[in-house]
Automatic annotation (TrEMBL):
Membrane-crossing segments per the record: 20-40, 52-71, 83-107, 131-155, 167-186, 198-221, 242-267, 313-342, 368-389, 421-446
Superkingdom, taxonomy of origin: Bacteria
Any Gene Ontology CC annotation: plasma membrane
Location(s) in or outside the cell: Cell membrane
Upper lineage: Bacteria, Bacillati, Bacillota, Clostridia, Eubacteriales
Lipid bilayer topology: Multi-pass membrane protein
Key words of the record: Cell membrane, Ion transport, Membrane, Potassium, Potassium transport, Transmembrane, Transmembrane helix, Transport
Gene Ontology MF annotations: potassium:chloride symporter activity
Protein's name according to its UniProt entry: Potassium transporter KtrB
Species assigned in the record: Eubacterium ventriosum
Xref: InterPro entries: Cat_transpt, TrkH
Amino acid sequence: MTNLNINFKKMLKETKFNAARIIIVGFLWVIIVGTLMLMLPVSSAKGQWTDFVTALFTATTSTCVTGLVVVPTYAYWSLFGKVVILILIQLGGLGIISIATGVLIIIGKKINLKERRLIQESYNLDTSQGVVLHIIRIFSGTFAVEGIGAILYSFRFIPKYGVAKGVWYSVFHAISAFCNAGIDLLGDNSFMAYKGDVLINITTMFLIVVGGIGFIVWWDILKNIKNIRNKKYPLKKFSERLSLHSKIVLTVTAIAIFGGAILTFAFEYNNPETLGTLKTGEKILASFFQSVTLRTAGFCTIDQAGLRNASVLLAFFLMLMGGSPMGTAGGIKTTTVALLFLDVKSVVTGKNATEAFKRRINRDNIKNALAVMTMAISILMIAVIALTFTETGSLTKICYEAFSAIGTVGLSMNFTASLSLAGKLIIIVLMFFGRIGPITIVIALARKRRIDQHIKDLPEKKVLIG
């Protein structure tokens, strides 16, 4: 434990409190350690050494909470290997800064001012006051929600697998779902056997959504509920009292879930390879599950390879968007999509400012959102082009794999296992960027900028657009 404390402080000193760099180095460190552990014979079910690329791919997909796998998790890895994977999922879901700070708190080390500033910068908080409580809430909230999920899963898994295995399966899938990892132990068909099971579907969707909306939204909602219970203001004022961030996240999340479910239901209603053979109630349930899981979760109850082209295009959008900031999900985030849409709306309607819920959006926020979107699409397109040279699959399957990787979704059209060595490496880079890229960009660009006098003194000109 002392070594962890020394290493964490050494990292702070060497990086000059560059939170973006610490996050990158931290994730790389976890992936490397995870890779080495998964390579060991004790990690495989057959007790044999695992090749470096397979171990690296598995460690990356676990730490970056993606879910794409080149070997079946349930069959290839031993119990030790599965525990390593679960730990990597939890570390990746909570984040490197949270884990490191949590360790210091557990061993009783005082969090100094420099470390508080790092936490503040990492979570884009307005002040360094209360950052320790911020981390404690993240841990307590995470374990509470995962515990609820495990209990609900146990009603299905214990009767089917017995007490010991049932509890293990319940805990594993609760953590995997909450962290939006999408890695399961159920077999080659994920949750397809439970497509009509209301308890499994609702529990999984609950965990995915709660993990994906972000911790900041949690606390905002809970704070307002507490104020209403204390009669500080009436229930009808609940939505008004939410922060602008929470309003945008909850609005976009609701639109994405219901919009995605309605369109999936319409596109796949009579498709015999997906929803066509199901009863109406099962079709509705499967449509909602598909809509939720596409936004970085990775579990599935219908065969992704059987989707129609319209559903595939819908999947591309939902996978790229992902979840919300400060949560366990990946993607470019719901707020990024919302700000870009609102900015376009302001241009179309002839307004000088971008607004939402009677509030004006800061221009730096818009520029950051544009930067995140541009970088994500640029890297995605480069990767797709590269994959068309390295892989022999159809363009649809290649694009689905690439979007799934950069959105840290984990869904595949049965294509991951057939990737070439070069293809696996490309997907590994995409998964890493999908988990790190948007976070790093937001942290780097959200800092107070130095006004460059040279640029400020340059004459301003307009460029023709459109």
